[in-house]
Design brief:
3-stranded antiparallel sheet, binds flavin-adenine dinucleotide, single chain, Rossmann fold, 7-stranded parallel sheet, 7 helices, 261 residues
C-alpha cells in the first residue's frame, strides 16, 4: 500500500522585507512579500527522501494561509511533492497556534496520512509547538526535532540531538514528526520540477469543508493576544573612528563608553 506522507509548510513574510503589524496588532500579511518558511524546506526534503526509499509513496504538502500561500505550495511541488492542499478562509484571520493546529488536524484527517512531517519551527512565529499540538489533536505519537529520520516496518525511527546526548527514538505509524535544519540540505527545484509543478493538483478547502465553525478560529478564539507593539527606533548615524595613530585607543574608549567592554 502507498505510504501517505503529509508535509506541513508555512507561508511566512520575507524576513528581508519591511514587516508591520496591522491595526488589530496581527501580522500584516497582505502588504509584504512572502515565501515558503526555509525551515519547512527541510521537512519537504525528508519527505521526498522517505518517498524515494519506499516501494510506493505519495507526498502531499499542506498549508493554512492566505491566497499568496499558494506560492509556498508551488515551491514544495517544484521540489518534487505530488499534490497540495490549501486551506484558506477569511475567518482564519488572527488565528493563533490553537486555531491553526485545529484546521491542520481536520484537513490532514480529511486528506489521509500515515506520517505527517513538519519543520522544527516557522521562521515568523517560531513557537516550535505546532507539531506537538497537532499530534495531540490527531491522537497519534509525536517524534519531534529529529536530525535523522526514516520509516521502516510501519515505524518512524529517528535521532534527536541534544546538547549533551543524542536520543534514538521510534514510534508506530501513524505519527507526527518534526525535523531540524540538521536533517540534510534541501534540494533546489530543477527547471523540470518547476514546469511539472504547474500541472500538479492543488485542492482548496474552506472552514465549512472541514466542519469548523468560524468562532473556533480567528482572533476572538485565540488563546494568545498582542497587547501593544512599538516600531523599532530608526537607526542612528553611528560613530566613525578615524585612525590617525590613536584609532585603537579611541575604539576601546568608545566600546567602554557603551559598556561593551
Ligand atoms: C492567515 C493567518 C493569520 C494568522 N494570524 C495570526 C495572529 O494574528 N496571531 C497569531 O498568534 N497567529 C496567527 N496566525 C497563526 C500563526 O501564523 C501560526 O501559524 C501559528 O501560530 C503557529 O505558530 P508558529 O508559526 O510559531 O508555529 P511553529 O510551532 O513554530 O511551527 C512549526 C511547524 O508547524 C508547521 N506550521 C506552522 N504554521 C503552519 C501553517 N499555517 N500551515 C502549515 N503548516 C504550519 C510548519 O511545518 C512549521 O515549521 C495566523 C495564521 C494565518 C494562516
Amino acid at each position: 500500500m502507498s505510504l501517505r506522507i503529509v508535509v506541513c509548510v508555512k507561508y511566512v513574510p520575507d524576513a528581508t522585507g519591511d514587516r508591520h503589524f496591522a491595526d488589530d496588532l496581527t501580522v500584516d500579511r497582505d502588504d509584504v512579500d512572502g515565501l515558503l518558511s526555509e525551515l519547512d524546506e527541510y521537512a519537504v526534503e525528508q519527505a521526498l527522501q522517505i518517498a524515494e526509499e519506499a516501494d510506493e509513496a505519495e507526498v502531499t504538502v499542506i498549508t493554512v494561509g492566505p491566497e499568496d500561500a499558494k506560492d509556498a505550495l508551488r515551491k514544495a511541488l517544484s521540489m518534487g511533492a505530488d499534490k497540495a492542499v490549501h486551506v484558506e478562509d477569511e475567518d482564519l484571520h488572527g488565528s493563533d497556534v490553537m486555531g491553526t493546529s485545529l484546521v491542520l488536524a481536520k484537513a490532514i484527517e480529511k486528506t489521509g496520512y500515515d506520517v505527517v512531517i513538519a519543520g522544527m519551527a516557522s521562521t515568523d512565529g517560531t513557537m516550535g509547538v505546532l507539531p506537538a499540538i497537532l499530534a495531540e489533536r490527531l491522537g497519534v505519537p509525536q517524534v519531534t526535532l529529529l536530525s535523522e529520520v526514516k520509516i521502516e516496518d510501519g515505524k518512524v525511527i529517528g535521532r534527536r540531538d541534544g546538547d549533551t546526548a543524542s536520543e534514538q527514538l521510534e514510534a508506530s505509524l501513524p505519527a507526527v514528526v518534526s525535523v531540524t535544519d540538521q536533517s540534510g540540505e534541501a534540494r533546489y527545484p530543477s527547471f523540470k520540477g518547476i514546469m511539472a509543478a504547474k500541472k500538479k493538483p492543488v485542492e482548496s478547502l474552506e472552514l465549512s469543508d472541514l466542519d469548523i465553525e468560524a468562532d473556533e478560529v480567528g482572533l476572538e478564539a485565540a488563546w494568545t493576544a498582542v497587547d501593544s507593539a512599538t516600531e523599532r527606533p530608526a537607526r542612528t548615524a553611528g560613530t566613525i573612528v578615524k585612525d590617525e595613530g590613536e584609532g585603537g585607543k579611541q575604539l576601546a574608549e568608545f566600546l567602554a563608553s557603551q559598556k561593551f567592554i
